[in-house]
Amino acid sequence: MKYSIVFAALVSLGSASPIEPRQQTYGSGPYGAVASSSDSGFADHTIYIPNKAPLTAGDKFPVLVWGNGGCGSDGNSNNKFLGHVASNGYLVIASGRPGGSGGSTTAAMMKASIDYAVKVAGTSGKYANVDATKIAAAGFSCGGVEAMAMAWDARVKTLGIFSSGLLTNYTAASTFTKPIWYFQGGSGDVAYANGERDFKALPKDTISWKGNLPLGHGGDLFNTNGGKFGKAGLLWLDFLFKGSEDGKKYFVDGGSKSDGWAVETKNLDKAKPL
Description:
The structure is a single chain. By secondary structure, the chain is an alpha/beta fold. The chain is 26% helix and 20% strand. The chain contains seven helices and nine strands, in the order αβββαβαβαββαβααβ. Strands 1-2-4-3-5-6-7-8-9 form a nine-stranded mixed beta sheet, with helices on both faces. The radius of gyration is 17 Å and the shape is globular.
């Protein structure tokens, strides 16, 4: 029933050897990353995955599921950011095929990404080191609305909203209880008013961070590694999923302001690794 707010709006890494060596390598993280849609029965999504096993014994790769701007069906549309995230030790699944065109993605496709991550995590081969107990749902613009539909999925631990806000059922944000991060493009961002409204409506106990960088809709997400939007997005994941001290300094200790973010927070002092 709760997914209807979106449907109404949207009508083994067992070795260190490359997984698909002929493909482009993404990101500047220590793992590098490759992308594909070759998994049998899951061809309508794009999978970004580290190109090496964990560098430290016992480490696991958390999961990011992603919705594209415009709910577009090209899973490579944000590849500079998503590939960079994967290259830093994450499994990333974007709705839509690489280079896909025609039609649009849905919240159901994002849910399918979560289902798939849970299914394959810990199996042999390239998914051997995936940890599906740590799943984040995020998206840009229309894709951010898809991510908000995951607010009630118990498998999702945190939400990342990039230049987005609810399109219908505006009171739904008042029920969001998961840690939620908003990355907005300032007053010139077409989603600015909706994002501001949603942030204000969050329950008083919800851990949240909202940053505005005056770069407009989507900011510099399409720049190398996702630009400052991508830097903040990766640190959000590292902070909550890996206990990163750099992430803590950026968000809790105010380091993001040095990058130009105008920040508001709620209960951030209560944030801790998930």
